[in-house]
Amino acid sequence: MSSWTEGLQNALQYIEDNLTEELNIEDIAAKAYISPFYFQKIFNVLCGFTVGEYIRNRRLTLAAEELSTLDIKVIDTAVKYGYDSPDSFTRAFMKFHGISPSAAKKKGANIKSFAPLKIKLTLEGGTMIEYKIVEKAAFTIMGKCRRFSADTSYTEIPKFWAEHYSNGGGEIIKGMFGACVDGNDKDFNNGKEFNYFISDLYFPWNEIPDGCTTHTFSAGLWAVFPYRGECPKALQDVNTKIWTEWLPNCKEYELDGNYNLEFYVEKEYGEIWVPVRLADNKN
Predict the structure, then answer these.
(1) What are the structural domains, with CATH classification, of the chain?
(2) How crowded is the C-beta side of 48, counted as CA atoms within 13 Å?
(3) pLDDT of residue 102
(4) Using CA atoms, how far apart are residues 195 and 170, in angstroms rounded to an integer?
(5) Quick check: 140 and 201 in contact, CB under 8 A?
(6) Contact 193, 150 (CB under 8 A)
(7) Total-model pTM
(8) DSSP-derived 3-state class of residue 155
(9) In which region does residue 25 sit, left (phi positive, over 0), alpha (psi from -120 to 50) or beta (all else)?
């Protein structure tokens, strides 16, 4: 567990040391020894907000502290903390602090503070999570695909599903899988965006409907976690346990591949599939 927490803390310290510089999610994730795809997913589950939100809140905290204590121009502060214009800085500042940057310069102004994170994973009694390790042959999914930002995916992906069914898409693609797949190229905003598929299994003798695309997953090991109960709560509860309890304590396996799937079996039963490989010390 120490290497896991140390990696996350290294990433947080890197963010803190570079708040006035351009921050790249690939460089941040490298400090935690995991891919940008998984770093953002795990960060969101552990902290309750995205990496982008954390960076923005820390920058706005420091900006307000400097404006209230130093003789510094608003425009210089905006540039220092990565804003393209005073207007965009003012909008973000007012949303966070409730007052304008100019008002923050006045003596006695009330400003808000967002403290740096320190990750601590503690054991608070035994909990159980059901899973199995399954070796699967290569398989292909087919479905509707859309690109999402890691910062807004939690709210935008449910809208994608609602749109799919409201437009009659369920007659063509039932929605057996929800698959997150890292774009893995520079067009995907340096790891901040990923493809999401509403999909079914694809067989090569079937035609690909208009507006659909395919993706093939390589043969390998998967950690399969069942969930039971009403969605989305049942699924989200298991998802949280995967990243906060199972993975930090798992010594036999480590993450493999920048993708994961949700397999919807029936109304109140499904599975979360996470690609894994034997840990280096087990090979």
Answers:
(1) 2-104 (1.10.10.60), 132-282 (3.20.80.10)
(2) 2
(3) 94
(4) 19
(5) yes
(6) yes
(7) 0.82
(8) helix
(9) alpha
